[in-house]
Model the fold of this input.
Amino acid sequence: MDDADTVGGADGVTIEPLRDEYIEGFHKALDIVCRERRYMVFLRAPPIDEMRDFVRESVAAGNPHIVAVADGEVVGWCDIRRLERDVHAHRGLLGMGIIPGFRDRGLGRRLIVNAVEAANRSGIHRVELDVHADNHRAIALYRKVGFQVEGVARDALKIDGCYLDSVRMALIFT
Done:
């Protein structure tokens, strides 16, 4: 997908590269999902100025950042950030989320497929992610698009006094 492309669905949601005009909406969507305290390793979004700098640097570096937009508002995202060290530069770390009200509509699949295709085109060889072990819906989605479970980190997270396992998954382009 290049900057001029949009992929629309029957639901009126478009899938687009993250541009400056969407950074604040991305920040808002990230914060909504973080504050649910169920899906992310952040419990709230970073300050907007940090987010703006991070996104601009990441996009300039050629990392795929894809957003789902409905009526001008960001309702979901999927990004893959290439790891920085030379020995890890073939790897990308996937992050994604969808705000409530837009889940279970196939939007996650549309986002991840676009981001993974962009990562493959950019020369990333391996895309990896960590997902909360109790997030069965996300794990099923990742499996459907080709990710495989590589392991489980027991008690890897602690949210509100409760320990959670984390599942490591990866997709390797052949």
Remarks:
- The radius of gyration is 15 Å.
- The longest strand covers residues 148-159.
- The chain is about 30% helix and 35% strand.
- The beta strands are 7-8, 14-17, 65-70, 73-82, 91-98, 126-132, 148-159, 162-172.
